[in-house]
Amino acid sequence: MTKNNIYEIIIKSIGLVLIYQIITIIREFTGSLMMFSIQNQYQDAMKGQNIVILYYTLSILFTTLIAYLFIFKTKLILSKINKNEKDDLEMNININKEELFNTVLKTLGFIVTIWTLPNFILEIIKYLNKENLELNTYFVQKENLIYASIKIAVGIILILFSNKINELTFKKNDTTQN
Length: 178
Description:
The protein is mainly α. Helix content is about 80%, strand content about 0%. It contains 6 helices and no strands. Helix 1 packs antiparallel against helix 2 (about 50-70), helix 4 runs antiparallel to helix 5 and helix 4 (about 95-130) packs across helix 6. The chain is flat, with a radius of gyration of 21 Å. The mean pLDDT is about 80.
C-alpha cells in the first residue's frame, strides 16, 4: 500500500462525511423555508429571505460538488496535490485499499447511526405525544423525525451495502482516471 492509497481512502471518507453534512444542510434549509412561510402569513414580506435561500442553495450545491469530487475524482485530486514521486513509496501495510475503505464505510455507518439514534428516539416520543403540541411545532417535530430517520437509513445503508458502495466508488474512479 502506498501513501497515495492512504490519502485516497482519507479523501473518500471525507466525501462521505460531506454527504452526511448535506442532509443536515437540507434539514436546516427546509426548516428555514417553513419559518418563512409561517412568518409570511403574519407579515407582507420578510427582508433577507432571498439571501438565506441563496445561502442554503449555494451551500448544498458547493458541498455536493466537493463530495462528488472527493468520492469519485480522488485520483485527480491526488495528482493535483501530490506531484512528488516520493509520496507514492510503498509502505509496510499489508491491507488492500478496497478492504480498508470498506471498513471505513462500515465505521462511518455505525457512527452516523449511533449519533442519530438518541435524537431519533426522542423525536418518536415527541411525535407520539403530538396531542400536546401546537400545530406549528407539530410540523417541526414531524420534520425532525423524518430527517432523523433519513440519517439512520444512511447509516444502515453504509453498513449493509458497504461492499457495493466500495465497488461503485473504486470502479468508477479507476475507469475514469486510467
